[in-house]
Amino acid sequence: MSRWGRHKRQEEADAANAPAQAEAEDAQVSAWRSGRPKEKELTIDSRLTLRSGLRMPRFGLGTWQAQGGDCYQAVLEALKVGYRLIDTAQMYGNEAEVGRALQELQIPREEVFIVTKLTGREHGRVAAGHALRESLEKLKLPYVDLFLIHSPRGGLLIETWEAMLHLRDAGLTKAVGVSNFGPQHLRALQALGKELPEVNQIELHCGWHQKETVACCQELGIAVMAYSPLARGKLFGGPLRQVAWSGTEAGLCIRWALQKGYVVIPKSVTPERIRSNATVFQTSLDAVQMEQLESLDRGLCTCPAARAMDLPWAEVADRKPKGKGKGNSQPQARLPTRGETWVDALR
Asked: Which residue from 108, 147, 207, 281 has the least number of CB within 10 angstroms?
């Protein structure tokens, strides 16, 4: 058979399979929004589909407080084990180490999902663009997959969110989202007619289920990304031991969050724990175990940054605290001309 004939038959086969594939994708999105994904489908390679169609890994490595060689080695180990999402931030001061590990392993760029976050010191139209470019230089990447506003605490949220959308349209990030945003912040953006974030990264674990925020995100089609899924170990050695589970307490927490439909990013710099956390896909939790974990919700906030979720919208919408960050002190970029975006004007 000719090459053209083989290609033609492949096209016909692809066309025949398209409805089934689309149905499977729709089922996956529905499962994520309902918080009840099919457990048997969960693997280290599982991904959810964001509103834009971008496929985001369900499981990754958090790097908060990981510095220098520890961060570099942790990212190397995670990628070797099969992690395909790495979460970093400008505030963490470790983007260069993440970039060095990516360069060493030379995994195809499209196979790895990189998340970084805009520090509150860089809120504002001009500062946000400069900050993302600096992050890309440190990461040694042409783009990141997801760029988040780290916290509403930096203020100027309307202007900063518009800048985030421009940066995405310019190709410097594939998707944009937020972190530590409460329902009032998300609904305020909706009321303004703004395009909504694709992801909201919040503290979320067995001890703090964040039901109101999760419900809001699911209603608006915003994926929930859980940081500190282990509650910094504050649940270990106590109520978690009442749940029959063959793995570690950390694994129990991670598995619960995965089965709830969240993107989960446990942090560790210990090779053994990085490998152990990746074994949670070998065993699922049954309905009884999930119900036991549901009963542990007591509003346990372990990260001070999460308190920004309670900030009133009026305090952060179009104001920036005096003397906070380089956004007000940097030279202003020229105004964009017709047909240009703010990103073009920053070049």
From this structure: 108
